[in-house]
Write a structure and sequence with these properties.
The chain has 3 helices and no strands. With 108 residues, it is mainly alpha-helical.
């Protein structure tokens, strides 16, 4: 016995188009929410005052936050130094191994 109704899927282009349109709509909504959150954060005087207070506490040379900040700066500087040394070593090694070969004429 043959079925009375046959389910036909939508054309591929239509489904892809609907998916892209839905994704674009979601991205636009997320962008609007992000903009609203940033604007609320930037114009909140209480948060700005707390941020200034926190940065001033970190900058004072007493306590654990200052020590951690100094440690971070030292580790970051040491890492940069190691990267530069290794880069120079690799370039030097590459320059030594890539000695130009004299051009030879072939007899054809």
């Amino acid at each position: 016995m043959t079925p009375r109704f046959t389910i036909v899927s939508a054309p591929l282009e239509g489904r892809v188009g609907e998916g892209i349109a839905h994704a674009a709509q979601e991205v636009m909504a997320m962008g609007a929410r992000l903009k609203q959150n940033v604007n609320e954060t930037m114009h909140d005087e209480d948060r700005r005052a707390r941020a200034v207070e926190t940065v001033s506490k970190i900058a004072m040379p007493t306590g654990l936050p200052f020590v951690l900040l100094c440690l971070f700066v030292a580790v970051y500087a040491f890492r940069e130094l190691l990267v530069r040394i290794e880069t120079k070593r690799i370039i030097r090694q590459h320059a030594l191994s890539s000695v130009p070969v004299e051009s030879r004429e072939h007899r054809d």
